[in-house]
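Researcher: Here's a chain I'd like modeled. Treat it as a single chain, no partners, no ligands.
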Amino acid sequence: MLSPGFGQEGSHPPEQQQENAQPQAKPESTLEKVRDVPIEWLIGPYIPTSEPLQPLSNQERQKVYVHQTFFTAGAYIERIFTAGVDQARGVPSQWGGGMAGYGRRFGNRYGQFVIANTLQSVGNAALGYESRYDLCRCTGFWPRTRHAIVRNFVTYNRTERELRPAIPLYAGSFGAGMLSTVWLPGQRNVWKEGAYSALEQAGWGSAYNWVSEFAIDILQKLTNKRYPKAR
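Model: Modeled as a single isolated chain. Structure tokens:
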């Protein structure tokens, strides 16, 4: 004679009944998955307000350079946008339109960025300058906006207290503009291209810093403070 509940159709041992009674784990939403992605992958390495300002070691500088140059989404987005502006303006005209022309313009923009960031990183390392963006330790829209713009022209030296003109930043942009004449079509004045690239850094660099300054606030507003995760 079988014990009640065992061996009968539709019955299960107590252990299996307990497992079946447990609620199924709710699959993670796309937002819940991406909220664990560090904000650095969007805006690049930065110094949050909660961390002290400390000088970078040479190894840390190498990691910052690689991340800024190849693994920051914002760097690609900016080049995608500026290449689109070049496409709309039709410059250089020799590259024509369509996807082929846009591909050349994006390659030109990204190539100049790699050269500029390489020269800037070398200069910052030689002078002991800070190469990361430091979020403003202030409040208010205009003070933070002013901070973002100013940081496009000055940066900390190795003391992380004294500000110095961002010479490597603009020297890198100037040098990248000059070197771009190697692949740009037509006759180009190297000094003019260098100066134009440095002027672009003043404009686009300030805009990029502004986005970096407010990126966390904007994303938390859009996602009801679920992304990015607070440090």
